[in-house]
Amino acid sequence: MTDEAGPWLVVGLGNPGREYAGNRHNVGFLVAELLASRMGAKLGRHKRAVAEVAEGRLGFGGPKLVLVKPLTYMNLSGGPVVALAQFHKIPPARVIAVHDELDIPYGQVRVKCGGGEGGHNGLRSMSKSLGTKDYVRVRFGIGRPPGRQDPADFVLSDFSSAERKELEFLVDRAADVVESVVTRGVEPTQNLYHGA
């Protein structure tokens, strides 16, 4: 399969800094890191954007991916994303945001194109900077906070020990979903993974 239509920009959303590394809000970073290692690529600082970037192909001669971990805080993620989209001449339709999702139970990964941001600051920033909401989202379910915990505190807390037992498997599945979107398209990926 060739990439005649050009590369894909895959954005793992998260917050930079060691104190955020294990947070639910940082699951996008974990998926971007796994995709980079699958491609044998290394994430490194980019000269044109406040981000870590890795470039590679899915399989031999496969579609090209530009993986991005914005190093701004979550609510400013759109700046580096639009800078890299312009640099690589990638249209919003070929941008994939990987992010945590409160409205999906933990253990489920969903994909959709467009729609609202559901209060997610990273998505809000991306939509504003790209000038459209019409990009792909790979939504990693983290579930709702227990009891009366504030959702803002919940997303910035670490995965529980029970959740961590499954986390590696789920990050792996989310990376599979990203690859499927690139190679198969959104609808076939929904058919393949939404029943799982």
Describe the structure.
The chain has 196 residues and is of the alpha/beta class. It has a single domain, classed as 3-Layer(aba) Sandwich (Rossmann fold), CATH 3.40.50. The protein is 36% helix and 20% strand. The chain is built from six helices and seven strands; from the N terminus they run βαβββαββαβααα. It has a seven-stranded mixed β-sheet with strand order 2-3-4-1-5-7-6, sandwiched between helices. A hairpin with a 6-residue loop joins strand 3 and strand 4. The longest helix is centred in the C-terminal third of the chain and has 24 residues. The chain starts with 7 loop residues before the first strand and ends with a helix. The model has no long low-confidence stretch (mean pLDDT 94).
What structural keywords apply?
196 residues; 6 helices; seven-stranded mixed beta sheet; 36% helix; Rossmann fold; alpha/beta
Topology:
Blueprint: E1 8-12, H1 27-39, E2 44-45, E3 51-57, E4 64-70, H2 78-87, E5 95-101, E6 109-113, H3 121-130, E7 136-141, H4 151-155, H5 161-184, H6 186-193
Parallel strand pairs: 1-4, 1-5, 5-7
Antiparallel strand pairs: 2-3, 3-4, 6-7
Helix pairs in contact: 1-5, 2-3, 5-6
CATH class: Alpha Beta
Please work out how many helical segments DSSP would assign: 6
Shape: globular
**Helix/strand-derived class?**
alpha/beta
| N- to C-terminal distance | 26 Å
The CATH topology corresponds to Rossmann fold
Count of all domains: 1
Largest sheet: 7 strands, mixed
How would you concisely characterize the structure shown here?
With 196 residues, the chain is of the alpha/beta class. The chain has helices at residues 27-39, 78-87, 121-130, 151-155, 161-184, 186-193, and strands at residues 8-12, 44-45, 51-57, 64-70, 95-101, 109-113, 136-141. Strands 2-3-4-1-5-7-6 form a 7-stranded mixed sheet, sandwiched between helices.
